[in-house]
Amino acid sequence: MNVKEKGVRHERELAEELWERGWAVVRGPASGSGARKRFQPDIVAARDGVIVAFEVKRVSDPSKPLYINKRQVTGLLEWARRAGGRAFIAVRIPGVGWRFHDAEGLEDTGGGSLKISKPSSGLKLIELEETLLPSSRKLDYYFTRGQT
Description:
Layout (H helix, E strand, L loop, with lengths): L2 H18 L3 E4 L15 E5 L2 E9 L7 E4 H14 L2 E8 L3 E6 L4 E2 L4 E4 L8 H8 L7 H5 L4
Parallel strand pairs: 3-5
Antiparallel strand pairs: 1-2, 2-3, 4-8, 5-6, 7-8
């Protein structure tokens, strides 16, 4: 399986997980394509009036920093601003699961990229939901705590 196929698989995996948790989800039609005229997030999710745009990445070694093209993050932030939503980098870590990093808080390397120093330090999915939907904690939270 090549890198592009892995990326698509992870995007679909995250989209399905968000859908199962009650989010309306769409995967960007040009996701993974270099032929975009304007930026499109990998995934857009909405729930209870909250809009979130995700750029999906994966790492094989969570102890190493993740570098992301600055133009890609700038496009993600601009898309989220226009939509009235938030922007996150969703990082898939084998054996660990998903971790989410606010795109506003990435470290500038001073060059053409931004950095997440410790990819595994991001929010778990349930923590992301608590951050975005603080008043909607449901009973199932207490049963799934510690998962995803």
